[in-house]
Amino acid sequence: MTVQETGPLTTESGAPVADNQNSETAGLGGPVLVQSQHLLEKLAHFNRERIPERVVHARGAGAYGTFTLTRDVSQWTRAKFLSAVGKQTETFLRFSTVAGNLGSADAVRDPRGFALKFYTEDGNYDLVGNNTPVFFIKDAVKFPDFIHTQKRDPYTGSQEAENIWDFWGLSPESTHQVTWLFGDRGIPASYRHLNGYGSHTYQWSNEAGEVFWVKYHFKTDQGIKNLTQDEAVKLSGEDTDSHQRDLREAIERGDFPSWTVQVQVMPAADAATYRFNPFDLTKVWPHEDYPPIEIGKLELNRNPENVFAEVEQSIFSPAHFVPGIGPSPDKMLQGRLFAYGDAHRYRVGINADHLPVNRPHATEARTHSRDGYLYDGRHAGAKNYEPNSFGGPFETARPLWEPAAVTGTTQYSPAPSHAEDNDFVQAGNLYRLMSEDEKTRLIDNLAGMIAKVTRDDIVERAINNFRQADADYGKRLDTAVQALRG
Ligand code: HEM
Predict the structure, then answer these.
(1) What are phi and psi of 50, to 5 degrees?
(2) What percent of the chain has pLDDT over 90?
(3) Range of the domain at 448
(4) Is residue 456 included in any domain, yes or no?
(5) What is the pLDDT of residues 286-319, one digit of tens each?
(6) From ligand 1's centre to the CA of 465, what distance in Å?
(7) CATH number of the domain where residue 86 is located
(8) What is the DSSP string of 258-314?
(9) Does residue 88 sit within a domain?
(10) Would you state the pLDDT for residue 6?
(11) Catalytic residue of the set 22, 45, 47, 130
(12) Strand pairing category for 202-205 and 123-130
């Protein structure tokens, strides 16, 4: 922790404050004077201490760390921070829950955000993932509707099981992620005991311009540890900050959490004929198709000094790429490329990327975009246009990523289905992989929430999705829900 500064308390403009207990009045016991500048300044600043919370993932905790490359991956990407075995890159990782507001409890059934910033010498690379390899939907146009069902209902002001199951029932592509969420991993014991996933497919390209599609996995070295529904309900009541506290205290005592970093790599030529659409965020690439390859280690080893400055104001964007890494045509990812920068401009402001936690640490940003609210004058008198003849920064002529082939006409249509694609196949496979005990807990967790829905048609539609994934899954869920609904 930073040592307290000494010297007199001052106003915001630096003048010494004589009295911080009593405001200035007209006479003894009289009304307060407008010239009581210290009081007015304090009240005004206090009124403006909050910025808008994140519209999703509002609640979170972050820490700095180090990524170490342990395998040569230059055959797949020319990204400099991935160029030499042993190379280390500073990182900042923010964990979060998704649906709850800023002051909500940590120990809830919800995906966990896993937003990772690599401060590379070619600029910051952000990998904004979750602790789940898949997601509920596969087109960004559905995201605001989905999140509306997770947040507070406009009439009741509360989260409503009715809305959640109505949306999921009508969005069968959610069946895989919902099976995951209501299984054992749905409530992690802490931020240290979960895996992270990039979730989307991303493009890597090497020096020769060859393209590969990759998926990232961060496997916790602490081991997976989860809470049961009952344990989580109890913990949430006792300590809303359980995950945040656990992470900070572990780092304070030098027990640095770490993750083994793996990638699945698909040569570009495989994509068109792969049995699943490789850009579908509701599907994994089974490991027997593309085995995970270990490439590095991520360790968290430094707590932020100031939660507001470094965690609340931190920004992560899936559009923050570096040379050798780029987007895939995943329709969810494409929507996210816009959404995050837009959120940052609204939530933190147009100069959010100048803040210490957000700016590049291993290079500097040399952009001609400048000025606006809270601009700090960092460019001094340098020219603010390009091309110029004053030796200013110049373009490189090499895009960060390689071109992708496109065909046909513009259209509103789902991403193409491949040979084995449907909304239920991987949900069914996941269910069948579970032990008998795991299946029982999954059914109990699902039934407990579905039974809160009042409308029969919404209940039936929700159960029918699980029935299509696996007949036994549907049958057991139906029985459990009927027993609870009476
Ligand atoms: C089209 C779909 C999505 C949209 C439009 C979207 C939009 C957003 C927005 C607006 C924020 C708040 C950003 C801020 O205020 O700084 C956010 C946060 C976040 N989202 Fe998404 N999101 C989408 C899907 C996803 C997916 C699929 C994942 C994970 C695979 C994800 C992971 C996260 C994480 C981890 C954060 C918190 C970042 C932080 O810690 O600051 N989102 N999302």
Answers:
(1) -100, 145
(2) 98
(3) 425-485
(4) yes
(5) 999 999 999 999 999 999 999 999 999 999 999 9
(6) 26
(7) 2.40.180.10
(8) EEEEEEEEEEGGGGGGSSS-TT-TT----TTTS--EEEEEEEEEE--S-HIIIIIT-
(9) yes
(10) 86
(11) 130
(12) unpaired
**What mean pLDDT, rounded, does the chain reach?**
97
Position 153, amino acid: D
pLDDT tens profile 409-460: 999 999 999 999 999 999 999 999 999 999 999 999 999 999 999 999 999 9
Residue closest via CA to ligand 1's atom 29 equals 129
Q: Which of 57, 176, 200, 217 is catalytic?
A: 57
Residues forming a β-bridge with 292: none
Q: What is the dihedral of CA 58, 60, 66, 71, to 10 degrees?
A: -70
Which atom, in ligand 1's list, is nearest to the CA of 333? 1
pLDDT at 486 (0 to 100): 84
Residue 384 a catalytic site member: no
Q: What is the position in ligand 1's atom list of the atom closest to the CA of 142? A: 1
- Kindly tell me if the per-residue pLDDT of 2 is higher than 80: no
The finding on whether 264 has its CB within 6 A of some atom of ligand 1 is: no
3-state secondary structure 121-161: ECEEEEEEEECCCCCCCCCHHHHHHHHHHHCCCCCCCCCCH
Give the number of the atom of ligand 1 that is nearest the alpha carbon of residue 198: 30
Last residue of a domain, one of 305, 328, 354: 354
Residues 348 and 446 in one domain: no
Reported pTM: 0.97
**Of 303, 320, 354, which residue is a domain's last?**
354
Does one domain contain both 328 and 463?
no
Q: Tell me the per-residue pLDDT of 400-421, one tens digit each, with 9 for 90 and over.
A: 999 988 999 999 999 999 999 9
Whether residue 16 lies inside any domain: the answer is no
Is 131 designated active site? Answer: no
Structural domain count of the chain? 2
The 3-state DSSP class for residue 383 equals coil
Among 50, 96, 128, residue to substitute to test ligand 1 (most atoms within 8 Å of Cβ): 128
> Are residues 436 and 350 located together in one domain of the fold?
no
- Please report whether residue 198 resides in a domain: yes
